Amino acid sequence: MLNKLLQLSLLASSLLMSTYTLSSTCDDFTNVELRKLRSKETLNLCQFKDKPLLIVNTASNCGFTGQFEDLEKLHKKYKDQGLVVLGFPSDDFFQEEDDEQDTAKVCFVNYGVTFNMFATSDVRGDSANPIFKHLGNQTSSPKWNFYKYLVSADRKSITHFNSRTKPLSDEMVSAVEKALQ
């Protein structure tokens, strides 16, 4: 009886694991596991399948760093409708903190960011993280910090916005609302 119960338990665990694996995978550029900022936790971006993504390369010591406030407002306003904001700190333009703890302080303490932020990585060139490698190949690599990419829910359309485009500008809000339809 105990042996039978153990077999059933193993079978149930196996089915649950395969269901989780199937639901968390996708066949596009978001099928990548990335470490969250100042955490050992990782996220596979496939979990945001069928949702539009706003992907932004960030920096803690840039003239555009204040855009964190409006990115957070955009996140809070549209997250329940499906928008996913993802922040990627980068020192490609020499304006990011050397210590990840300091980067996290700028994001989470100074600006109250609640959207997902990832560990500092390259966003340009051969060493760019896989997300930005794809975005760069499809559109263009970031020209500066706070370059924004709005990726459609079906991953077929990518619209990019330069650093000067404010997250709450009419242009950006209109594009986000269109992506959510």
UniProtKB/TrEMBL annotation:
Gene Ontology molecular-function annotations: peroxidase activity
Pfam family, one: GSHPx
Keyword presence, Signal: yes
Keyword Signal attached: yes
CDD domains in the record: GSH_Peroxidase
SUPFAM superfamilies attached to this UniProt entry: Thioredoxin-like
Domain of life (superkingdom): Bacteria
Record-linked PROSITE patterns: GLUTATHIONE_PEROXID_1, GLUTATHIONE_PEROXID_3
Keyword field: Oxidoreductase, Peroxidase, Signal
Stretch forming the signal peptide: 1-23
Family, similarity comment: Belongs to the glutathione peroxidase family.
Protein name (database record): Glutathione peroxidase
